[in-house]
């Protein structure tokens, strides 16, 4: 007497599972790639808000706003979180200050890679920055 004792999966069943996993991966991977760039933008916004606080501290001490070189010195010690990948631009004067950051890690076509902020009677870093003291990205 012969018994048919089948253990395991057939080749067709395994192939179907692999195809389903491939479809799910093809859907999920682009969603996660965009998340990294959103984190870079959030980091730039945070850096610019920290710069605003440092500029106000500098103004309270010296009655003028700081340039990039001045704001990076102690005790203010403002730095950019992205390191060499982020290019800062800061101008300061008695009447106000303006700053922008460019993050070179953002590589998607048409993606936002610049953010800026300003305060006082100075020219905003870009037309997208419309409100004083509010970070805007373009």
Automatic annotation (TrEMBL):
A GO cellular component entry from the record: type II protein secretion system complex
GO biological process: protein secretion by the type II secretion system
Localization: Membrane
Pfam families attached to this UniProt entry: N_methyl
PROSITE patterns the record matches: PROKAR_NTER_METHYL (PS00409)
Record-annotated membrane-spanning stretches: 12-33
Membrane topology of the entry: Single-pass membrane protein
InterPro entries: Bac_GSPG_pilin, N_methyl_site, Pilin-like
Keywords assigned by UniProt, alphabetized: Membrane, Methylation, Transmembrane, Transmembrane helix
Protein name (Swiss-Prot/TrEMBL): Pilin
């Amino acid at each position: 007497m012969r018994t048919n004792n089948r253990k395991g999966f057939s080749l067709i069943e395994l192939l179907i599972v692999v195809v389903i996993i491939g479809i799910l991966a093809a859907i999920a991977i682009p969603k996660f790639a965009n998340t990294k760039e959103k984190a870079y933008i959030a980091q730039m916004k945070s850096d610019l808000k920290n710069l605003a606080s440092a500029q106000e501290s500098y103004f309270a001490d010296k009655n003028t706003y700081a340039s990039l070189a001045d704001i990076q010195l102690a005790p203010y010690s403002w730095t950019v979180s992205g390191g060499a990948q982020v290019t800062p631009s800061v101008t300061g004067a008695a009447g106000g200050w303006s700053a922008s950051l460019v993050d070179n890690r953002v590589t998607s076509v048409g993606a936002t890679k610049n953010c800026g902020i300003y305060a006082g009677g100075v020219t905003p870093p870009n037309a997208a920055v419309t409100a004083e003291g509010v970070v805007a990205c373009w």
